From TrEMBL:
<dbReference type="Pfam" id="PF00005">
    <property type="entry name" value="ABC_tran"/>
</dbReference>
<comment type="function">
    <text>Part of the ABC transporter complex PotABCD involved in spermidine/putrescine import. Responsible for energy coupling to the transport system.</text>
</comment>
<dbReference type="InterPro" id="IPR008995">
    <property type="entry name" value="Mo/tungstate-bd_C_term_dom"/>
</dbReference>
<dbReference type="InterPro" id="IPR013611">
    <property type="entry name" value="Transp-assoc_OB_typ2"/>
</dbReference>
<dbReference type="GO" id="GO:0015594">
    <property type="term" value="F:ABC-type putrescine transporter activity"/>
</dbReference>
<keyword id="KW-1003">Cell membrane</keyword>
<dbReference type="Pfam" id="PF08402">
    <property type="entry name" value="TOBE_2"/>
</dbReference>
<comment type="subunit">
    <text>The complex is composed of two ATP-binding proteins (PotA), two transmembrane proteins (PotB and PotC) and a solute-binding protein (PotD).</text>
</comment>
<dbReference type="GO" id="GO:0005524">
    <property type="term" value="F:ATP binding"/>
</dbReference>
<dbReference type="InterPro" id="IPR003439">
    <property type="entry name" value="ABC_transporter-like_ATP-bd"/>
</dbReference>
<dbReference type="InterPro" id="IPR005893">
    <property type="entry name" value="PotA-like"/>
</dbReference>
<dbReference type="GO" id="GO:0016887">
    <property type="term" value="F:ATP hydrolysis activity"/>
</dbReference>
<dbReference type="InterPro" id="IPR012340">
    <property type="entry name" value="NA-bd_OB-fold"/>
</dbReference>
<dbReference type="InterPro" id="IPR003593">
    <property type="entry name" value="AAA+_ATPase"/>
</dbReference>
<keyword id="KW-0472">Membrane</keyword>
<dbReference type="InterPro" id="IPR017879">
    <property type="entry name" value="PotA_ATP-bd"/>
</dbReference>
<protein>
    <recommendedName>
        <fullName>Spermidine/putrescine import ATP-binding protein PotA</fullName>
        <ecNumber>7.6.2.11</ecNumber>
    </recommendedName>
</protein>
Length: 348
């Protein structure tokens, strides 16, 4: 195993009776990395997290932690802690006792416990909350207590299973920033599970896109968004226009009856491909100046932009524009070579 890899899943398969939830999954997580498992409900991301934590056994494959196989190591003996969406705080204990709980299990001296709890509460901006009851805290504060309780044990790996799911949008965005800051300060590896694309793009060093128990793509947020490997990733991460095309040669593609320069290469001559163009990369022009022409069919205001749908020949396109355009208007559109991303067609 490479020196900077903390944990590795090798050929992991997990079934529930005849239902295969994860099939032959391979994944490694590096030290100090913030990695996010992203996908729709039922894609296998939480099962993968539970396998790492030791809450689920595997049917085949190995879990390697710091060069040691840990398949049979129980959860409490792994150097791994988990924060859940339901924070599972002890309601009969105050904040101090909640955070100190794991340290008491380890039978640490009281003086050391006091120092560690104080430092951890300061880190999560709950200094002075030691004697407060859990029910007196807001959702965001309860989540900070759950994070402090997990981190005070100094795990080498922290697993977070949709921990922001119960928070309102504003608090959720604030906690995204806080979590990333805490992770960077402590240098602990985080594996985060979410179905929220924006959350994954905002927080992660690496994103693992999953669907139907299989990994679809692994990459940086920029790679995943700008260079999707297949139709599922292109559709799941943000919005996309996906158009059938023909790759004429390196750096040249034909779609909607016209040739376009692009930045992709390595395809067969005249290979049938799928062309991905993000809505925000399309510029609306006068009809006469457009590389392609069409008619606006709907306009919806989304706050920071208008979402415009237009029929370009026989295809409905989505366009994001800061200026409003009238329904029924004939328009032209312009796209640059950098705005065009080519994907191989999935085998039927």
């Amino acid at each position: 195993m490479e020196k900077d890899i903390l944990i590795e899943l090798r050929n992991i398969t997990k079934k529930y009776e005849e239902n295969v939830v994860i099939e032959n999954l391979n994944l490694h997580v590096r030290r100090n990395e913030f990695i996010t498992l992203l996908g729709p409900s039922g894609c296998g991301k939480t099962t993968t997290l539970n396998i790492i934590a030791g809450f689920e056994n595997v049917d085949s494959g190995n879990i390697i932690f710091e060069d040691n196989k840990i398949n049979d190591v129980p959860p409490h003996k792994r150097q791994i802690n988990t924060v859940f969406q339901k924070y599972a705080l002890f309601t009969h204990m105050n904040i101090y006792e909640n955070v100190a709980f794991g340290l008491r299990i380890k039978k640490l001296p009281e003086k050391e416990i006091k120092e560690k709890v104080k430092n951890m509460l300061k880190l999560v901006d709950l200094d002075g909350f030691e004697k407060r009851a859990t029910h007196s805290l807001s959702g965001g504060q309860q989540q900070r207590v759950a994070i402090a309780r997990a981190l005070v044990n100094e795990p080498k790996l922290l697993l977070l299973d949709e921990p922001l799911g119960a928070l309102d949008l504003k608090l959720r965005k604030e906690m995204q920033v806080e979590l990333k800051k805490i992770q960077k300060q402590l240098g602990i590896t985080f594996v985060f599970v979410t179905h929220d694309q924006e959350e994954a793009l905002t927080m992660s060093d690496t994103i693992v896109v999953m669907n139907k128990g299989a990994i679809q793509q692994i990459g940086t947020p920029e790679d995943i968004y700008n260079e999707p490997k297949n139709r599922f990733v292109a559709n799941f991460i943000g919005e996309s226009n996906i158009i059938n095309g023909i790759m004429l040669e390196d750096f040249k593609v034909n779609f909607e009856g016209k040739d376009f320069q692009c930045v992709d290469k390595g395809f067969n001559k005249d290979e049938a491909v799928e062309v991905v163009i993000r809505p925000e990369d399309i510029k609306i022009t006068d009809e006469a100046e457009g590389m392609l022409k069409g008619k606006v069919t709907s306009v919806v205001f989304r706050g920071v932009h208008y979402e415009i749908k237009a029929m370009i020949y026989n295809t409905e396109w989505i366009i994001h524009n800061t200026m409003q355009v009238s329904v029924g208007k004939n328009i032209g559109i312009k796209i640059t070579p950098d705005d065009i991303h080519i994907m191989r067609k999935a085998s039927e």
